[in-house]
TrEMBL record, chain A:
Lineage of origin: Bacteria, Pseudomonadati, Pseudomonadota, Alphaproteobacteria, Acetobacterales
Source species of the chain: Roseicella aerolata
First and last residue of the signal peptide: 1-22
Keywords of this entry: Signal
The name this protein goes by in its record: Uncharacterized protein
Top-rank taxon: Bacteria
Automatic annotation (TrEMBL), chain B:
Protein name: Efflux RND transporter periplasmic adaptor subunit
A single Gene Ontology CC term: cell envelope
Organism this protein belongs to: Roseicella aerolata
Keywords: Signal, Transport
Biological classification of the source: Bacteria, Pseudomonadati, Pseudomonadota, Alphaproteobacteria, Acetobacterales
N-terminal signal peptide: 1-26
Cited PANTHER family: CATION EFFLUX SYSTEM PROTEIN CUSB, SLR6042 PROTEIN
InterPro entries: MFP_Cation_Efflux
Composition skew (Low complexity), residue ranges: 194-203
Residue stretches of biased makeup (Pro residues): 183-193
Gene3D superfamilies, per database record: 2.40.420.20, 2.40.50.100
A GO biological-process term: plasma membrane copper ion transport
Disordered: annotated span: 183-203
Length: 131, 563
């Protein structure tokens, strides 16, 4: 191994933490354009449109988590009415979906209560998806 | 490749892994920071949104007490409706029990474990959904049945034996070590008769001491137990201050959200209140005389007077020579008048035979003499009126009835309280001669006075330039001569920073000034800041505070006193 290769390896070592730290803070926009919040050990990204909520789960390192192992519900406050909607996983496990009668108004508030997977304790997070 | 180099390479390869672990969660710890309340506190739930901040305290039997405040300024929110949901199920509405305090009782809340609570808050036209987690600890196992002394004795006879042996040994040692009476140095004398009662008291008194201690302990014990159950504000080991919501309400803590702004730095000058020269008047007689009261007597201090109003009269006084001259002149005039009158009468009878012009002349001369006599009258017997030169309030009275005053002696001063100025002196050339963008002053009672710059004098006074300002709206009770601190915005320099009320700043006994950040619903973190004064009531935080932080602006001093 040459000295050049060694230098390259060292440079890569120094650059890597910079890449790793580019992760999603709470309240930011996620890769799908929704708001990101911490749910227990995971990050959740919530997208809202009329009648439908979509929740993507990511782990610490922002890798998608299989949603089929998660279960939970969403408390939705929209236009002065409150609903509790159950989440169901998409067949491919990419996200959780909850459907109900509500409108995606700017003052939409959603509290997601989730058991992210077997053996992980229940957690909840509050979203303001359209702010 | 040497072994050393291989080691280095391995280390380099391992670095990113280690760093990745470290960096994955920098500044980001999934809600553990909410565990701000000390471990001894009762189970509590906190929830906040952009509009509200809610703290719940779980009492016995699942009684949840909720305090609802505004998020931004920490003001209590009264008359709100709070619907509480537990793990997705609505469990009821909290009813109002006191101002901005709500309560709900539900047995499910008392169950040990972690409860996910949702709060639907309706306050006026606002509606919000808040989420919080309530962790109820396992009830501590009831203390084991009291283990009586008798049982212990029965179970451990050896221990009893050892104890008894040690007791006997101690008694023996005490006996051996007891002081013995020394042999008398002198001949034995008959013991003096003791005062009655003095000899009997000590044993009783000795026994009373421990008894008293025991009684005190018994009395104090319930108090100590109560104090442990209560929550008091206290300083946490990391230096932040834990203030429970009820205490926050009592202290009246209010916050603002820090925002970056721009302001002009200011200079402070020492000044004092002076009257507006166009609205102040001195009443001085033009000649020496004796004070005589006006129709309503002499004016009193604080009396409001109109311009031209007669405040007093001054009767002139003359020396004997002056009086003699005056009287001589008067007598002379009187004689001339008599002669002139006789002449006019004579000529009038001869009308037709003397020229009309002659009669006219005589009449004119008589009239002139009479006028001269009339002009002399007030000098001899008349008096001078002392009138208020301006409308205002009488602020100095140096007169008594009958007092003899000299000419140019100030008898009264009249000040218009609505027109006051401030005179300040500036030593700094930038302030003294630079443009003045604005000025305010702090009065002796801490009142804030808006000032308009009037002008500056070019004659130095005590090596300083005097500056004059007009007080825009003088408050009642501001006295002429009162010392004020003038804050001048001089120069065109603008600085960036966070503008805060001066009351937000706490100056500890040592170190830099501190503001308190409302970091969690019941936790306040002191932040050392670098500040510049802006004006009488605002400061500019140049460093030490992030925009968006909630800063205590009311009762910050009380928070700082928590130990």
């Amino acid at each position: 191994m040459t000295r050049r290769a060694f230098t390259l390896a060292l440079l890569a070592a120094l650059a890597a933490p910079g890449l790793a730290s580019a992760h999603m803070p709470a309240g930011a926009r996620g890769p799908n354009g929704g708001q990101v919040q911490d749910i227990g050990p995971y990050h959740g990204e919530l997208l809202a449109r009329d009648g439908e909520l979509v929740l993507f789960l990511f782990d610490h390192n922002d890798r998608p988590v299989d949603a089929r192992r998660a279960s939970g519900n969403a408390v939705v406050l929209a236009g002065g009415h409150q609903h509790t909607l159950p989440f169901e996983a998409r067949p491919d496990g990419s996200a959780l979906v909850a459907r109900g009668e509500f409108h995606a108004v700017p003052d939409l508030r959603v509290v997601v209560q989730l058991v992210p997977g077997p053996g992980i304790s229940r957690a909840q997070a509050r979203f303001t998806p359209l702010r | 490749m040497t072994a050393t180099r291989r080691c280095l390479l391995l280390g380099a390869a391992a670095l990113p892994l280690a760093a990745r672990r470290a960096a994955a969660h920098a500044g980001h710890d999934h809600g553990e920071e909410d565990a701000a309340a000390p471990a001894s506190a009762a189970p509590r739930v906190t929830a906040s949104s952009e509009a509200f901040e809610l703290v719940g305290l779980l009492g016995p039997d699942g009684a949840l007490t909720l305090w609802l405040d505004r998020f931004a300024d920490n003001a209590p929110v009264d008359g709100a409706t709070i619907l509480v949901g537990l793990d997705g199920q609505e469990i009821g509405e909290a009813r109002r029990v006191a101002e901005a305090v709500y309560a709900l009782r539900h047995e499910a809340l008392a169950r040990p474990g972690t409860h996910d609570l949702t709060f639907t808050v309706t306050a006026g036209g606002e509606m919000d959904l808040l989420a919080g987690t309530l962790a109820v600890p396992e009830p501590t196992a009831p203390a084991a049945a009291p283990h009586g002394l008798l049982e212990t004795v029965r179970e451990q006879p050896v221990l009893l034996g050892i104890g008894a042996g040690l007791l006997a040994l101690g008694a023996l040692l005490g006996r051996l070590a007891a002081p013995r009476p020394l042999p008398p140095m002198a001949e034995p004398e008959p013991a003096p008769a003791r005062a009655p009662g003095a000899g009997e008291a000590p044993p009783l008194r000795r026994a009373a001491g421990p008894l008293r201690c025991l009684a005190l302990l018994v009395l104090l014990a319930p108090g100590l137990a109560l104090a442990q159950g209560m929550e008091a504000p206290r300083r946490l080991p990391d230096g932040s201050v834990f203030v429970p919501k009820p205490s926050q309400r009592l202290l009246g803590i209010r916050t603002v959200i820090a925002e970056t702004g721009e302001a002009t730095p200011t200079t402070r000058l020492v000044g004092r209140v002076v009257p507006d020269p166009n609205a102040t008047g001195r009443v001085q007689p033009s000649q020496a005389g004796r004070i005589e009261p006006g129709e309503a007597g002499l004016p009193a201090l604080g009396q409001r007077v109109e311009q031209g109003q007669v405040l007093a009269w001054v009767a002139p006084i003359y020396s004997a020579a002056e009086r003699g001259q005056l009287q001589q002149g008067a007598a002379e005039l009187d004689a001339q008048i008599t002669i002139a009158e006789a002449r006019v009468a004579r000529l009038a009878r001869l009308q037709g035979s003397v020229a009309d012009r002659e009669i006219q002349d005589a009449r004119t001369e008589l009239q002139g003499l009479r006028q001269r006599r009339a002009a002399l009258n007030p000098v001899i017997a008349g008096r001078e009126a002392l009138r208020a030169p301006v409308a205002g309030v009488v602020s100095a009275v140096a007169a008594a009835v009958g007092q003899v005053v000299d000419a140019r002696e100030t008898v009264f001063e009249v000040v218009d309280p609505a027109r006051l100025w401030v005179e300040a002196v500036a030593f700094d050339p930038a302030t003294a001669f630079g443009p003045i963008a604005g000025a305010t002053a702090t009065g002796p009672a801490g009142e804030r006075l808006a000032l308009d710059f009037v002008g500056r004098g070019l004659a130095l006074r005590q090596q300083a330039v005097p500056l004059n300002f007009r007080i825009a709206a003088p408050p009642a009770g501001l006295a002429v001569g009162a010392p004020v601190t003038v804050t001048v915005e001089a120069g065109a320099r603008r600085v960036q920073g966070i503008v805060l009320p001066a009351a937000a700043l706490v100056r500890p006994a040592e170190g830099a000034p501190v503001v308190f950040e409302h970091a969690a619903p019941e936790r306040f973190i002191p932040r050392q800041v670098r500040t510049e004064p802006l004006d009488a009531s605002r400061v500019l935080v140049a460093a030490g505070l992030e925009p968006g932080a909630r800063v205590v602006v009311q009762a910050a001093g009380l928070v700082a006193q928590v130990r």
